[in-house]
């Protein structure tokens, strides 16, 4: 999930702070998601996919196609 979050965020030209503000979390939380130190909660994942304009399955490692 960590690489998928970072890749999708960067593809949109969004920085960690911008994503954090939209998601209602700290920039540190986004950083931890992207390093694999923690994961978004189950309730955050659908919104995260929507914000990153991707599918939940892609966040979990399915190749975007």
Task: Give a quick set of tags describing it.
mainly alpha; 434 Repressor (Amino-terminal Domain); 65 residues; 5 helices; globular
Detailed description of the structure:
The chain has a single domain, classed as lambda repressor-like DNA-binding domains (434 Repressor (Amino-terminal Domain)), CATH 1.10.260.40. It is 58% helix and 0% strand. It has five helices and no strands. The chain starts with a helix and ends in a 6-residue tail after the last helix.
CATH topological fold name? 434 Repressor (Amino-terminal Domain)
The CATH superfamily label reads: lambda repressor-like DNA-binding domains
Measured by DSSP, the beta-strand proportion falls in: under 5%
Task: Give the averaged pLDDT, no decimals.
Answer: 95
The DSSP helix count reads 5
Ranges where pLDDT stays below 50 over 5 or more residues in a row are: none
Integer count of domains: 1
Shape designation? globular
Radius of gyration based on Cα positions = 10 Å
Q: In CATH, what is the class?
A: Mainly Alpha
First and last CA, distance: 17 Å
Q: State the helicity in percent bands.
A: 55-70%
Structural class: mainly alpha
Largest sheet: none
Q: List the helices and strands in order.
A: HHHHH
What is the number of strand segments?
0
CATH architecture: Orthogonal Bundle
